[in-house]
Amino acid sequence: MITLDSLTKSYDDHLVVDGVSLELPSAGVTSIIGPNGAGKSTLLSMVSRLLGVDAGTVDLDGLDVHRAPSREVARRLAILRQDSHTPARITVRELVELGRHPHSKGRLTPACHAAVDAALARCDLADLDRRGLHELSGGQRQRAYVAMVLAQDTRYLLLDEPLNSLDLVHATALMQLLRTLSDEHGTSVVLVLHDINYASVHSDRIIAMRDGRVVRDGTPEEVITEEALSDVYGAPFRVHHLDGDRIAAYYR
Ligand SMILES: Nc1ncnc2c1ncn2[C@@H]1O[C@H](COP(=O)(O)OP(=O)(O)OP(=O)(O)O)[C@@H](O)[C@H]1O
Ligand SMILES: [Mg+2]
């Protein structure tokens, strides 16, 4: 379990994460939704130690994330940032191999190669592994970053808008893959999504943020309602029932 206790962050005088306390489970798929600027990425960045906290703590299965050695954190938790980029010109395979760094100390073992191959295959990149990252389409590149995070092979997977640039088929495939990792490998997946219908259909739990706070936290049945979504986003959503799922719409 990851326990967030009173996490707080300000930029200048602007409070962007306002004393958030939460327990993220050690299994299952948890989606974080909310409008632009709600503080979702800032929260995830603090949980994964990409960003320091102004106040509060993050406990990762007994490890104080902001005090523990970074390798210890990286063996348990992987994060896909919203704005991934690598400066050097590297191939897809080389990028995914970087995900093994916390395990390999720079020397890839047979287990590392197997994990890299599996991650490439899962992200439909097996045929593109020798390509330079700069030679890919936006969606292919996004899948390469997801593969890098999967290759890290951690109990906790934090993904900030992993569906960015993906077509509907690859987006659905990725959500199905995350569901499978959770169901069959016991991975805890925590992801930020703007497409609330993917959150609705594939999550066990949905956390909604607005103005740096958690304003809803519950099952899709509890959070994907016209009342809750209208409150979270300040817009009049409609919620339809389709094949047993709740599908939200706001187009006009
Ligand atoms: N480095 C920074 N300096 C100043 N303000 C920042 C910085 N990073 C984020 N902010 C501000 O903090 C607030 C929360 O940003 P954050 O990136 O966490 O939002 P978000 O919920 O992830 O939004 P989005 O859906 O657009 O990704 C925003 O108002 C943003 O402008
Ligand atoms: Mg964000």
From TrEMBL:
Record-linked InterPro entries: AAA+_ATPase, ABC_transporter-like_ATP-bd, P-loop_NTPase, Siderophore_ABC-ATPase
UniProt-recorded Gene Ontology molecular function terms: ATP binding; ATP hydrolysis activity
Any one of the GO BP annotations: iron ion transport
Entry membrane topology: Peripheral membrane protein
Keyword annotations from UniProtKB, A to Z: ATP-binding, Cell membrane, Ion transport, Iron, Iron transport, Membrane, Nucleotide-binding, Transport
SMART domains the UniProt entry points to: AAA
Listed GO CC annotations: plasma membrane
Pfam families, sorted: ABC_tran (PF00005)
Primary site of residence: membrane
All residue ranges annotated as the ABC transporter domain in the record: 2-236
Keyword Ion transport: yes
PROSITE patterns (alphabetical): ABC_TRANSPORTER_2
The organism's place on the tree of life at top rank: Bacteria
Compartments it resides in: Cell membrane
Identification of the protein by name: ATP-binding cassette domain-containing protein
Organism: Demequina lignilytica
